[in-house]
Design goal:
alpha/beta, Rossmann fold, eight-stranded mixed beta sheet, 39% helix, 18% strand
């Protein structure tokens, strides 16, 4: 039975979509069948960071028309084994959780991991999405405003009954942490969620996106290695978290 993981953030600009694409690619490299789902019906960018712009999946039909093989609705990645893209999947509006339930049930049966790239913020679409997920990853950066937003997201998850919530601190600049005399432990305390991993700021991330190339295929530098370690932890491996 596959795991459905909502990847969320309190605001835009945290690198949430990049995280979904990079972690999904790394899970695929670890041999786990993984589908990344773009859940932002208005601002779709997941295909860019995954390098599947020319391999868009078909329109998702209603529950009564789902194919027996759910991968028929997904775009198989042209360069990465075990990785698919699905979307956009619209969670906005009343009753969307129930409408999406049959599709997500089929995804659980077909894949080891499903990463839901949620819209930023705390709107109704995000709440609907969370009601369909098994666990959640909150993506923040190290700045105070992002951590405060992450704390608000953690409170929302607790109110929804979500118990498996973890924190990804993205785009970490060690020099900025030292100037602020801050630590990753401070970020954990600020948000109130267990740490899944940290990813250092890395210029190769926007470079890879601009070239429509998955980060794991473009670079082996800091960010790429950080996302690989996160994927390994999700896969049940014991991997130490390096300091900021």
């Amino acid at each position: 039975m596959g795991r459905i993981i909502a990847v969320i953030s309190g605001k835009g600009g945290t690198g949430k979509t990049t995280a979904v694409g990079a972690i999904g690619a790394c899970l695929g490299a670890l041999g786990r069948r993984t589908v990344c789902v773009d859940c932002d019906a208005d601002l779709q960018n997941l295909d860019i960071v995954m390098g599947t712009v020319n391999y868009l999946p078909p329109v998702i039909p209603d529950a009564s028309s789902l194919p027996a093989d759910i991968t028929e609705l997904c775009a198989a990645h042209p360069s990465l084994e075990n990785v698919w893209l699905l979307g956009p999947l619209d969670f906005s509006g009343e009753g969307r959780s129930e409408a999406c339930a049959p599709l997500l049930s089929a995804i659980r049966d077909a894949f080891d991991f499903c990463l839901l790239d949620a819209p930023a913020g705390m709107g109704g679409d995000v709440k609907n999405l969370l009601s369909c997920a098994d666990e959640a990853i909150i993506v923040t950066t190290g700045d105070r405003s992002s951590l405060r937003d992450g704390q608000a997201m953690c409170s929302l998850l607790q109110e929804s009954g979500m118990t498996d919530v973890r924190l990804l601190v993205n785009r970490v600049d060690p020099r900025a942490f030292r100037r602020e005399r801050a630590t990753v432990d401070d970020a954990i305390d600020a948000v109130g969620a267990r740490l899944l991993g940290i990813v250092r700021d890395d210029r190769t991330v926007p470079e890879a996106a601009n070239r429509e190339t998955p980060l794991v295929l473009y670079s082996r530098k800091a960010a790429s290695q950080g996302f690989l370690r996160i994927a390994q932890r999700l896969n049940g491996e014991c991997v130490p978290v390096p300091g900021a």
